[in-house]
Amino acid sequence: MPLPPVGAARPxxxxxxxxxxxxxxxxxxxxLRSIAFLWRRSLMFRAVAITVITSGLAVSVIxxxxxxxxxxxVYGQRRDQIQSESERATVVxxxxxxxxTAAEDNNQAQLETLQNEAQQAILSTTTSPGGxxxxxxxxxxxxxxxxxQNIATPNFPDAVITPAMRSAVAKNSGHLSLQPVALDxxxxxxxxxxxxxxxxxxxxxxxxxxxxxxxxDAQKTLxxxxxxxxxxxxxxxxxxxxVTSLVVRLVVVPVRAAAExxxxxxxxxxxxxxxVRGEDDLAILATNFNDMADVMGRQITQLAELSRLQQRFxxxxxxxxxxxxxxxxLAGDVIYxxxxxxxxxxxxxAELLHAQIERFELLLADLLEISRYxxxxxxxxxxxxxxxxxxxxxxxxxxxxxxxxxxxxxLATPGGHVExxxxxxxxxxxxxxxxxxxxxxxxxxxxxxxxxxxxDTVAIAVRxxxxxxxxxxxxxxxxxxxxADPSRKRTIGGTGLGLAISLEDAHLHKGTxxxxxxxxxxxxxxxTLPRHGGVPETVSAIPLPAPGEPLExxxxxxxxxxx
Length: 563
Description:
Blueprint: H1 13-41, H2 43-99, H3 108-125, E1 132-138, E2 151-152, H4 163-171, E3 177-185, E4 188-201, E5 205-214, H5 216-266, H6 281-337, H7 344-374, E6 383-385, H8 387-405, E7 409-412, E8 420-422, H9 424-441, E9 447-453, E10 457-464, H10 471-474, H11 498-508, E11 512-518, E12 522-530
Parallel strand pairs: 7-9
Antiparallel strand pairs: 1-2, 1-5, 3-4, 4-5, 6-8, 9-10, 10-12, 11-12
Helix pairs in contact: 2-3, 2-5, 5-6, 6-7, 7-11, 8-9, 9-11
C-alpha cells in the first residue's frame, strides 16, 4: 500500500470525535434552551413537568421499597427451603454411612459403594429447579486407615468453593455454612447459594459435603416483578401527565384568553372582551374582568376627552390672549419709553409693567409650545449643526449675564466637533434653559459647560456649584410649574415650563436629559443626543452617577471645577 505524499491531509480520528462532541454539545444546548424557554413561557409545561417529576420521584421511591421487600421475601423463603433441604440431605447421607458395619473388614469397594449410595440419596432428596450440584471432599490433614476419592457432579463449580468456606465448614462440624455465590451459565452470571456440611465416614474420617443451588428461578421472578413495576410506574406517570395536562388546560386556556385580551386592551383596542362560558369561577373572573374593562374604557374615554378639551382650552386661550397682549405691549412700550418724564414711582411702575409684559409673552409662547407637544403636532426642522460650535455661541451669549450674577462661565469641548442634523432652534432653547438655571442657582460660583462625544452619542453637560437638590426633588425637576424652593425669588425670569419643554425637545431628537444633584454641591444636567438619526441613545458620552452619589470618574473630572 503506497504512503500518502508529504504534506497531504490525513484523516484524524481525534478531529472526528471532536466534531461529534461539538455537534452533540450544540444539540444539547439547543434542547436545554428550548426547555428553559418553555419553562419560562408556558404555565402548562411547568405544571405538567413539576407533576411528572414529583410523581416520578414518588413512584420510584415506592417501587424501590416494594422491590426491596419482595426481593427480601423471595430470597428469604428460598434460603429457608435450601437450608431445610441441605439439613435433610446431610442427615440422609450420614445415616447411610452410620448404618454400615464399622468392622475393620470394610474394604475400599464397600466404602465407595456407600459413597455412591449417599450421593444418589442426596440428589433425590433435593428439589432445586435448576438441579443440585454436589461435591463430597475429604477434609485435609487427616490420617485414616482408608481414603475415599473426592467425587462431584459433572457440572459442579469448583471455583465457588473458596478456601475460606472450606475452613469454616471444617471448623463448624455439625452445622451448615451458607454462602451466596455467582454461577457462570454460558457466559451469563446467575445467582446461587452454596451450602457446606460435614460427614463422618467409618474408617475414612471426616468429609465435607457441598451443595450448590441455582437461584436463577428466583432471579427470573424478581426480574419479572421489577419489569412489571417499571412498566406500571411509567404507565402511571404518563397517565398522571395526561390527567394533569387536561386539568391544567381547563385553567390555562381561559388565562391565556384573559392575557391576550388584556394585551389588546393595553394596545388601545378598548372594545376587546373575554368570552364568558359557564358559571364557574373562571366565568366569574371573566365577567368581572369585562366589567372592569368597561369601567376603565369609559374612564379612559372621559380622560381623553378632558385632556383634549384642556389642550384646546390652553391653545385657544393662548391665541385669544395674543391680541390684547399685543395692544397692551404697544401701550406699555409707549409708557416705558416715556418713563423718564414721569415721577420716580410711576417710572418704576412702568419698568415693572414692561418686565411683566415680557414675561407674559414668554408664558404664552411656552403654553402654546407645550400644547403642541400635548397634541403631538410638533415636527423637527433639522439643519446641519455642530454641537461644540452651538455651545460656544450660547456661552458667549450668556457670559455677560453670568458676570452680572458673579459666576464664571467656563466652556470645554473635548468632543462634539461633528456635524449633525438637528433642530438648531430647539437645541438652543434646551441649552438656554440649562445654562440660565445654572447661573440662577449657581450662588455666584463657577458654571462649566462641557461638550463631549463617542461613536454613538454627543453629550452637552452643564454644571453648577450652587444649592443642589435632594433625590426626591430630582425626580420632579421636569414637572410643569414645579419649583424645588417655592420661596426662592427668580432673578433671571422663567415661566416654570422651561425644563418640561427642554425634555420634550430632547425626546423629539431621540435623546434625553440626565440629572445629577447633591444638596450643597450643585447640579449637573447632561443633554445626550444620538449621532445616528432614529436610533435612541443608550449610553451617554458623559455618564452620570445616580443622584446623591459622588460625582467622580475620568469622564467627569472636568465637571469637578472649583468651588
